[in-house]
Design brief:
By secondary structure, the protein is mainly alpha-helical. The chain contains 21 helices and three strands. Strands 1-3-2 form a three-stranded mixed sheet, sandwiched between helices. The longest helix is centred in the first third of the chain and has 33 residues, at 2-34. The protein is globular and about 70 Å long.
């Protein structure tokens, strides 16, 4: 037993060293998307490749395999401490996946992705898909090679191997089975609102607010909901993201437009939700680097960001608290705007071009579009050269929106420049998880509305800390959902939520 405990202690030490190297890689990536000068792009790609290869070498070290084997021989080690057993289970899963990837491929993915990201930035700014096309073709080919290394699961498809990186054990066919009926229900809901409701006045969202005032408002909101800005920071970037790179260091980014302040607010709350999850994971002591200090899946991670952004941030209770603060910071720019007016304005159901600026009701259709396209590219059914045309066709079919240019079409998201095939479906899964968890929270905290109206978010955050954040990867996403809500994931809570917000905004309540 003592020998096994020593093996586990050494394993934890090695995983912490690996995670520390990974945190340096994350810092380099954060810098590239925020403050790195344009002239540093080529060498940054080389830096990223070297770091990725070093992390991969640590992850696939034969010593890690030996220690995992030693620990597996002592069943009492996991039985005595269920969290330790879960940690060993997930370490084995990570090791088995990592050892399927050659180090040269990992380095090539990192280097090409870094260069492709810079190419994407310029292509998006210049509305020039052809400039980005060769880079995307490279990333798609690298993603296919990675999927081949992982292997296609029995009865599945190559896309499943990539999806497994972000949503463990999920299958594309299962996700499609959820998305297809949800797509029909969302389309019917949007049509019902369009045909029977009166669109709310959204002119208030175009009020010109300075970047500085918007930033100050975002900081006030982050502080109120519980983000520790002594252990994090908020910066600007082209495409907002959160990086929980290390204990005590969680980086958030957002972007500002003077004549659409709600974009920055909800981007900030969204990334703040991710940040709260990262800050709530038990990364202290020896746990950093182990699965117990990591998020269970991107679907659950996304549920945390969407919960704060939409379920809290678009509620009348939130604006009851936030409106006086906004009016003060915005120098009276919101003048006679009422809480009711603002709440209606941020709960529309209007199909639009840009995913990150879309409303709750139409957002999932954007995700389904990307899921359809990247699955087709992985299957070889869609060539990268044909992506703009197919994107535009599906936008018209699914959202009834005509795409005027590629910058607001297939170039709008950064994900594919990194080769993140299989990532997009987790956004819609996050919405489904968030809705189901939110219904349970409202049952467990009957005074929640009154608390939010006072700007008191502590009990809500405490619930998330206890039931989600604290567990790391001890439970699967599905298990976590059932532990919290008593039910497997379903679409009904999301549809009920949308009806409760959108119909009143359109005078249909």
């Amino acid at each position: 037993m003592a020998d096994t405990q020593a093996s586990y202690a050494e394993l934890v030490k090695l995983k912490r060293e690996q995670a520390t190297l990974g945190s340096v890689s994350a810092l380099v990536g954060w810098d590239q998307e925020t403050y790195m000068p344009a002239g540093g792009a080529d060498f940054r790609a080389e830096q990223s490749a070297v770091l990725a290869k070093l992390v991969h070498e640590r992850a696939t070290s034969p010593r890690v395999g030996e220690l995992l084997d030693a620990c597996a021989q002592d069943r009492a080690l996991g039985d005595a401490s269920p969290p330790t057993g879960a940690s060993l289970r997930e370490m084995r899963r990570d090791y088995d996946l990592a050892t399927k990837l050659p180090g040269d491929l990992v380095a090539e993915l990192a280097q090409t992705g870094s260069l492709a990201q810079e190419a994407w930035k310029h292509a998006r700014e210049g509305n020039d898909f052809q400039a980005f096309r060769p880079w995307l073709e490279k990333m798609v080919e690298l993603a296919r090679r990675k999927a081949q290394c992982y292997g296609t699961p029995e009865g599945g498809e190559a896309y499943d191997a990539l999806l497994n990186e972000y949503e463990p054990d999920a299958r594309a066919s299962e996700i499609a089975g959820v998305f297809e009926p949800l797509r029909e229900r969302l389309s019917a809901f949007i049509a019902e609102v369009r045909d029977n409701g009166t669109p709310p006045d959204t002119k208030v969202l175009g009020t010109k607010i300075s970047e500085g005032a918007q930033h100050a408002f975002g900081i006030r909101v982050l502080d109120a909901i519980g983000c520790d800005l002594n252990a994090g920071r908020l910066d600007t970037t082209t495409h907002p993201f959160c990086s929980g790179m290390a204990p005590g260091d969680t980086r958030l980014t957002t972007r500002y437009r003077e004549q659409h302040f709600s974009d920055a607010l909800y981007s900030t709350m969204h990334e703040g939700g991710h940040g709260l999850y990262e800050q709530g994971l038990p990364k202290g002591g020896e746990l950093f680097g182990t699965p117990l200090a990591e998020s269970v899946s991107l679907g659950i991670h996304e549920s945390q960001s969407r919960l704060w952004e939409n379920f809290v941030g678009r509620s009348s209770q939130f604006w009851t608290w936030a409106m006086p603060i906004a009016k003060d910071l915005f120098g009276g720019a919101l003048g006679g705007v009422s809480v009711e007016h603002m709440t209606a304005a941020v709960n529309t159901a209007t199909p639009s071009l840009i995913r990150v600026e879309s409303d709750e009701a139409t957002y999932n259709l954007h995700v389904m579009l990307r899921f359809t396209l990247e699955r087709a590219m992985m299957r070889g059914e869609l060539e990268v050269a044909d992506l703009p045309g197919e994107w535009n066709r599906l936008m018209q079919e699914m959202l009834g929106v005509e795409v005027p240019d590629d910058a607001r079409g297939c170039l709008q998201d950064v994900h594919w420049s990194f080769g993140l095939m299989g990532y997009f479906p987790t956004y819609a899964l996050g919405n489904l998880y968030a809705a189901q968890i939110w219904e349970t929270i409202r049952e467990r905290i009957p005074t929640l509305d009154a608390q939010i109206e006072r700007g008191s978010f502590g009990e809500l955050l405490g619930f998330l800390r206890e039931h989600i954040h604290a567990h790391g990867r001890r439970y699967s996403a599905g298990e976590l959902c059932e532990r919290i809500t008593g039910k497997p994931l379903e679409a009904e809570p999301l549809m009920r939520h949308l009806a409760s917000r959108v119909k009143p905004a359109y005078g249909m309540a």
